[in-house]
User: Which sequence fits this backbone?
């Protein structure tokens, strides 16, 4: 639809597309993934197995996916967004059904060659569908209550499904990612102010109800909040991991203890050191220089995406780019905040660095769509 | 729909404005993260560095001692033995293959063990110790300890390993443990963290597997201090592990051992149960296997020897083996016909040696015919024609119902592996299985326990126990757990008319004790222990007319694997039943070697020791004495050495 407004002949075709790829972004992604390989090699005690080698293979597969997706024009992504969203929902339901048979919180489906986490897929398909929705919707109607309700429902369905798994981290990322697309599309700020006020009210109600008859959460849930606020209160339980993570990060100092020299990870004090807590190993071995470098790489990725989104006159393409970039942003911001004791431990991986196939492949696919939006951006009026 | 240029411009402007807002927000968050990093890694770095250097306390799991298994008298059936092993830690060893080569020069390690260790160390995290060998003796262990500096990452360890002092006597019942495998972990929902310990032993088969949760125990924790290289300096404190529960079986190990010795040489099974409580006193399946071979991984040579043995030592024939019950099933047919009113205890049927039904001739085993018989006489003489007729009168539905009532066709719930449910055929079953209607010939075959009917020795023992006690006895295997007796559930009355049960009982009295019985060789001379029982022969191959003419009716003249199975079910004493025994000798032929075996097992169970010669008929005593001398029995008077819990 919106592409009809532009001279599609100015969009590059065939191999010329290669020239228009945002190569800086590709380089940044490779640099982040590279630091991931380094850390996975290190936490395995200086070995490519069991983590670094499969991760490298997945990154190569991810690159292939990214370039393939980049060459597919965004209008195809737009028209397939509804189907993609439904497929992700079906997979979430499937994992729920299959999960109940196997007990415990099962979040992945076994595809044979890899384990797919449908919740990872849901984050991107939600952003796709919302971008397509606002592309379709008349700009004047964006803030009308009924048209605000539709995206809220679209966000809440997958959020409810992942909450059931239970996977609080993904649920938060879905809410934030969806909210940002609504924000960027121009939904009145009053709605966001309202949600903010509601959220604050809810949190204070939850905290004030503690110990009274109408207590809103279970005792153990309050205990978790206590542990987040003061990890020292439970040094051998859940707080132990946060304490150890902070010790690992802090003891890195300016330059770190050196590659393969981190005692916290080598002596196995760190939990989940190859997945959610990998950032602490980086901090221990490469110090402040290492952590600030990785943060800069992430920030540059976001900056490139925001720049691309602002300069893209196609509404779908720029909203999609924004949505992907922000989802990516929340990944690393929540993860870093979590291991540094700024956010509760909710189980969000460090994107492209933590060991895990689903997040890696889905994110590379998402950046493929960002590249697609970048390559095929409208370059002139009819 | 094409957007108006004004709308398009508006859209672009909104997105740009909001994106800038977002960018500012994100930049603020990034700045916050960067400040936090600086705070932790630059400002407070010294403090964290100090904590890190002091952070030398690690938590390790202590594996619990596995629960012990005893027999009803307290004889140890499964215990734990100290074993000496060497472990290797990948990250300390560095070059694992080179270190293992050096180790191989000091202590005997096979190339397979080296290959397996190299495979295992890469499967686990680098700091997890992997066992190289656990078959070392004290000398070898000392040599490893002395050569410590030349063997980085290698450490000697003392652990507990499962041992079965009675070797093959109870192998099928108790089963064995083995190192936990990937396949095991996949099958266990929410696996205990203990199972992640490499080579941790879990029950693989038998009671060890079925009651693994109870036997396993709970892991303990120890806090240890390590130096900056990760080497253990000292243990700070420990929360001891909780040993698994001790399980006492209803099995009498001495009786079991006697039964195994008595069955030796045959492919056979015997089950003895207490007719009042259902306690399984013995469950023997011969030949057996040595479970100790399986604990640390059986060699393929030993395993193949078991696999290729045509007597199938790995199969628990007592509960897993199912056989046509043959004439022992006549007990069921008689009860069914009597209880349904189709046959009165005084009704007589004429046996001319055969019966013609539906254009087919069914023979009695006695071709000359038995003449006029009532049900008691028919059981005593095991007349086939009588039961062909009684079975037809009762009908397959009534017979099937009675068979299930007597414990056949039911998977008795005992903590043993591969318990078979056998088969009590029905019209629906045949329709489903063969897509054919039930034929009258099927009823006739079923009436004498041939055709589709299949039962295990355990089920036959339950059947005869229910007949003897007149109660719905259920078998049980676990007598007490951690010293707490498992309560005995009182059995309900069998609910069959006393006159009917008594005529069947008198019938099987005649089998052993009457002038025309088929099992005189099972007679007990001691009147306080009168044994009553029923013989059975189950055909392994179809007998053709030519075979019959040549006299090849499943006896000794045909090859072993084609000979008939011999069965015997019995209980004793007749007037006050205590024990029921069932025996099956695969391909035992028609001479009913099963009956004397059952008698000897019965006498051992009733007298609590080697049967006194006075219990046997005077004529048999010489042969019995010689036979008893030849039996190879365990010496239960000396306690097993070093087989206590550490």
Assistant:
């Amino acid at each position: 639809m919106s592409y009809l407004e532009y001279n599609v002949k100015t969009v590059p075709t065939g191999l010329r597309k290669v020239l228009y790829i945002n190569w800086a972004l590709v380089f940044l992604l490779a640099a982040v993934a590279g630091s991931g390989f380094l850390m996975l090699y290190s936490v395995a005690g200086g070995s490519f197995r069991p983590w670094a080698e499969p991760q490298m293979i997945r990154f190569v597969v991810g690159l292939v996916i990214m370039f393939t997706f980049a060459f597919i024009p965004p209008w195809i992504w737009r028209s397939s967004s509804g189907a993609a969203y439904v497929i992700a929902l079906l997979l979430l339901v499937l994992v729920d059904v299959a999960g109940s048979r196997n007990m415990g919180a099962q979040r992945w489906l076994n595809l044979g060659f890899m384990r797919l986490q449908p919740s990872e897929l849901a984050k991107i398909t939600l952003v796709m569908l919302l971008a397509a929705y606002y592309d379709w919707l008349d700009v004047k109607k964006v803030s009308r209550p009924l048209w605000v309700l539709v995206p809220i429902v679209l966000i809440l369905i997958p959020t409810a499904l992942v909450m059931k798994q239970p996977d609080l981290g993904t649920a938060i990322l879905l809410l934030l990612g969806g909210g940002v697309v609504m924000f960027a599309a121009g939904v009145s700020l009053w709605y966001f102010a309202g949600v903010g006020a509601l959220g604050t009210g809810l949190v204070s109600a939850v905290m004030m109800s503690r110990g009274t008859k109408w207590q809103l959460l279970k005792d153990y849930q309050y205990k978790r909040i206590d542990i987040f606020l003061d990890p020292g209160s439970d040094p051998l339980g859940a707080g132990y991991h946060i304490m150890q993570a902070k010790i690992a990060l802090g003891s890195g100092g300016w330059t770190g203890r050196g590659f393969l020299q981190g005692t916290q990870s080598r002596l196995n004090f760190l939990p989940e050191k190859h997945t959610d807590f990998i950032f602490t190993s980086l901090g221990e071995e490469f110090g402040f220089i290492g952590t600030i470098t990785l943060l800069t790489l992430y920030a540059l990725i976001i900056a490139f995406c925001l720049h691309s989104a602002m300069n893209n006159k196609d509404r779908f393409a720029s909203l999609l780019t924004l949505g992907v970039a922000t989802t990516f942003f929340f990944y690393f911001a929540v993860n870093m905040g979590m291991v540094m004791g700024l956010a509760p431990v909710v189980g969000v991986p460090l994107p492209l660095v933590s060991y895990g196939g689903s997040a890696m492949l889905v994110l590379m696919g998402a950046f493929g769509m960002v590249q697609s939006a970048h390559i095929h951006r409208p370059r002139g009026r009819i | 729909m094409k957007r108006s240029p004004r709308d398009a411009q508006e859209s672009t402007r909104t997105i740009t404005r909001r994106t800038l807002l977002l960018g500012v927000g994100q930049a603020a968050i990034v700045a916050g993260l960067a400040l936090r990093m600086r705070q932790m890694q630059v400002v407070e770095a010294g403090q964290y560095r100090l904590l890190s250097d002091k952070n030398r306390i690690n938590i390790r799991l202590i594996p619990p001692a596995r629960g012990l298994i005893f027999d009803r008298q307290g004889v140890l059936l499964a215990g734990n033995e100290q074993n000496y092993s060497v472990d290797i830690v990948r990250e300390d060893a560095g070059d694992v293959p080179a270190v293992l080569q050096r180790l191989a020069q000091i202590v005997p390690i096979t190339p397979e063990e080296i290959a397996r260790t190299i495979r295992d160390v890469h499967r686990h995290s680098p700091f997890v110790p992997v066992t190289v060998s656990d078959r070392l003796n004290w000398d070898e262990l000392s040599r490893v300890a002395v050569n410590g500096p030349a063997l980085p990452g290698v450490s000697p360890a003392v652990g507990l390993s499962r041992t079965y002092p009675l070797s093959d006597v109870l192998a099928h019942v108790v089963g064995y443990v083995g190192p936990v495998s990937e396949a095991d972990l996949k099958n266990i929902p929410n696996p205990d963290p203990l199972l992640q310990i490499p080579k941790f032993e879990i029950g693989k088969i038998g009671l060890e597997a079925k009651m693994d949760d109870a036997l396993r125990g709970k892991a303990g924790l120890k806090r240890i201090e390590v130096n900056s290289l990760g080497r253990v300096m000292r243990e700070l404190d420990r929360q001891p592990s909780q040993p698994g529960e001790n399980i006492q079986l209803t099995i009498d190990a001495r009786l079991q051992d006697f039964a195994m010795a008595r069955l030796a040489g045959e492919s056979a099974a015997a089950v003895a149960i207490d007719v009042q409580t259902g306690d399984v006193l013995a469950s023997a399946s011969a030949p057996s296997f040595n479970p100790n071979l399986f604990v640390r991984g059986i060699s393929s040579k030993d395993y193949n020897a078991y696999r290729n043995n045509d007597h199938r030592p790995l199969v628990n024939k007592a509960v897993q083996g199912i056989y046509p019950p043959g004439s022992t099933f006549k007990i069921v047919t008689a009860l069914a016909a009597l209880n349904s009113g189709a046959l009165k205890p005084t009704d007589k049927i004429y046996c001319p040696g055969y019966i013609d039904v539906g254009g087919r001739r069914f023979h009695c085993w006695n071709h000359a015919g038995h003449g006029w018989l009532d049900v008691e006489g028919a059981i005593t003489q095991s007349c086939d024609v009588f039961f062909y007729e009684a079975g037809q009168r009762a009908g397959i539905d009534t017979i099937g119902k009675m068979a299930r009532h007597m414990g056949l066709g039911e998977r008795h719930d005992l903590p043993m592996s591969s318990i078979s449910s056998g088969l009590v055929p029905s019209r629906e079953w045949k329709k489903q299985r063969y897509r054919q209607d039930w034929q009258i010939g099927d009823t006739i075959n079923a009436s004498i326990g041939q055709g589709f009917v299949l039962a295990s020795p355990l089920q036959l023992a339950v059947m005869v126990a229910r007949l003897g006690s007149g109660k719905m006895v259920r078998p049980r295997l676990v007598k007490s757990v951690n010293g707490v007796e498992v309560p005995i559930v009182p059995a309900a009355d069998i609910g069959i008319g006393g006159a009917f049960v008594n005529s069947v009982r008198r019938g099987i009295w005649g089998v052993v004790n009457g002038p025309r019985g088929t099992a005189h060789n099972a007679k007990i001379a001691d009147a306080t222990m009168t044994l009553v029982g029923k013989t059975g022969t189950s055909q392994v191959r179809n007998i053709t007319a030519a075979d019959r003419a040549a006299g090849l009716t499943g006896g000794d003249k045909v090859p072993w694997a084609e000979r008939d199975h011999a069965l015997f079910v019995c209980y004793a004493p007749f007037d006050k039943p205590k024990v029921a025994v069932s025996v099956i000798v695969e391909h035992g032929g028609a001479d009913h070697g099963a009956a004397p075996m059952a008698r000897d097992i019965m006498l051992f169970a009733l007298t609590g020791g080697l049967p006194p010669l006075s219990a046997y008929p005077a004529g048999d005593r010489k042969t019995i004495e010689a036979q008893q001398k030849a039996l190879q029995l365990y010496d239960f008077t000396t306690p097993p050495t070093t087989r206590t819990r550490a």
Notes: Chain B touches chain A through 55 residues (CB under 8 Å).
